[in-house]
Amino acid sequence: MRRNPSGMSATEAEIADIVRAAAHERRQIAPFQDMSLPAAYRVARLVREAREKHGERVVGRKIGFTNRGIWDEYAVHAPIWGYVYDRTLHEISEPARADDFLEPRIEPEIVFGLARPIGAHMDLAEIAAAIGWVAHGFEIVQSLYAGWRFAAADTVAAFGLHGGLWIGPRRPLAPGEAGRLESFEITLARDGVEVDRGQGRNVLDGPLQALAHLARALAGDPGHPPLSAGEIVTTGTLTRAFPIQPGEVWTTALHGLDLPGARLIVA
């Protein structure tokens, strides 16, 4: 048993209902008390099943808190993951509506499309060979908890903080490109003014390493399926995450990696 925001005990099914209702009604809730990570991933499975019953389709995963540079800011010190759905997936040409989310923040990320399944036993070269395409884009994350104050388990239960994923042009991953995925640099700008810089190795030493971490994590959790062909995986923010407001235009420039920068209009 866990505690719900009113202080009463709640089952994992009740917690799943609470977070789904809060997101649907765009209202924030108090963090849950003493929920373990295994329990939170069971809640995430129940949330996924409920969303599928309501017509949503899982298209991939998001990995969160891969950037060690933001761990102290959020008091979360290990990666987590969540699902990406067809209704949360967008092309970079589509605007993002800030009012659709709770305390939304923007994260520039590297995104992979999987051509083959990825398992925990695979090394980085095998993982790279299983990738069908690579792209750059933005994830909009949101917090059901006021002020972005939570424990790691709270983030897992609340969709892995996933709000939406906007993806730019896709291209095949070139042979021998793993090193550039680790070393490339990125600048993030709001309305033409630079706000932060990052690099590929910020996400668990590189986006491929983040993907390998997710494969290992899934291997230890029979409640969730392993990574399969056709899935989209976004690997975590390359910079700090920043609040967004209607009317802003967010852009990136990548240096040392053959991918175009991204441009996202916030409506």
* Highest-level CATH class: Alpha Beta
Global structural class = alpha+beta
Number of domains: 1
SSE series? EEHHEHEEEHEHEHEEHEEEE
Largest sheet: 8 strands, mixed
The best one-word shape is: globular
Q: Which CATH architecture would you pick?
A: Alpha-Beta Complex
CATH homology superfamily? Fumarylacetoacetase-like, C-terminal domain
Supply Rg: 18 Å
Q: How many H/I helical runs?
A: 7
The proportion of strand residues reads 25-35%
Low-confidence spans: pLDDT under 50, at least 5 residues? 4-8
At the fold tier of CATH, the topology name is Fumarylacetoacetate hydrolase, domain 2
Helix content: 10-25%
pLDDT averaged residue by residue: 95
List keywords for this structure.
about 270 residues, alpha+beta, Fumarylacetoacetate hydrolase, domain 2, 8-stranded mixed β-sheet, 14 strands, globular
Written overview of the protein:
The protein is of the alpha+beta class and 267 residues long. The chain has one domain: Fumarylacetoacetate hydrolase, domain 2 (Alpha-Beta Complex). The chain has helices at 12-25, 37-53, 71-74, 124-129, 152-157, 178-183, 207-219, and strands spanning 2-3, 9-10, 58-64, 80-85, 89-91, 105-114, 131-141, 162-167, 185-190, 193-199, 232-237, 242-243, 249-255, 263-265. Strands 3, 4, 5, 6, 7, 8, 11 and 12 form an eight-stranded mixed β-sheet that branches. A four-stranded antiparallel β-sheet has the order 10-9-13-14, with no helix packed on it. It has a two-stranded antiparallel sheet with strand order 1-2. α1 packs across α2 (37-53). The longest helix is centred in the first third of the chain and has 17 residues, at 37-53. It is globular, with a radius of gyration of 18 Å. 45% of the residues are buried.
